[in-house]
Amino acid sequence: KSSTINALIGAKKVSVSATPGKTKHFQTIHLSDSVVLCDCPGLVFPNFATTKAELVCNGVLPIDQLREFTGPAALVAQRIPQAFLEAIYGMKIHPRPIEEGGTGIPTGEEVLNAYAAARGFSTTGSAQPDESRAARYVLKDYVRGKLLFCHPPPVDPPIDAKVFNRDLYDEAHLPEKRRAALAAHAEALVTGHDDSSLLDDAELGPLPPVQGEKTHRLDKRFFGPGAGQSQMNMPFHYKYSEQGTVVSGKQLSGRKFREMVALEKDVDPAELRA
Known about the structure:
Protein name: G domain-containing protein
Oligomer: single chain
Radius of gyration: 33 Å
Number of helices: 12
Pfam family, one: MMR_HSR1
Structural class: mainly alpha
InterPro entries: GNL1-like (IPR043358), GTP-bd (IPR006073), P-loop_NTPase (IPR027417)
Keywords: Cytoplasm, GTP-binding, Hydrolase, Nucleotide-binding
Strand order of the largest sheet: 1-2
Domain G: 1-45
């Protein structure tokens, strides 16, 4: 509602936020001498939202309090083309091939895995891609319009959503830094020096590894002088084995010799003593 009022007036008269429930009090704005707009707390539910996932993508439900992100992420993956997602985030999505049962369209899990891998988001302990953290970033970009999708008007015959939004996914709708990275990548392909990557941007690419004092100490011990001289710890019975006998030059005798022979022949050592 607040965004609609600002759009009608043509200036920022009321505060807006991507988080639903920003408006806390009732206020009136005079659009003209005969029209007064009222902005009040409350949510406007869109008539084309039929599931909770659509309510999240439409900005009705807060993303920071979201626990189930699979449905909303799947909607984003279906609506935004794969090439545009890869270009705007500088990542590579690996959808399941059609011959292996895939549909050719990336799933929400595949998009989140690619985003988490490009940003270095991983879970604690298992070191798996942190899909939950990646989902918050991707869904917030969708709600704020960085990943733009417009529903076609309800006309008869219906308009295909992909055809209706086709002009939104060109190079002009990419951030300036991403356009520059794409231009450098295309120039490298033409000249034959394909040394650049869309992940070279420090801001949009993967995060650099963080090295603390503990890491420096570990590296110093591992790569320091004399670190390459390893010492092999052998088991206690190594000197009695065939290899150990050759190394030490010692031969078994007496009781130990009889026990070794008994073990090799699988007999009782008492029989050999007799």
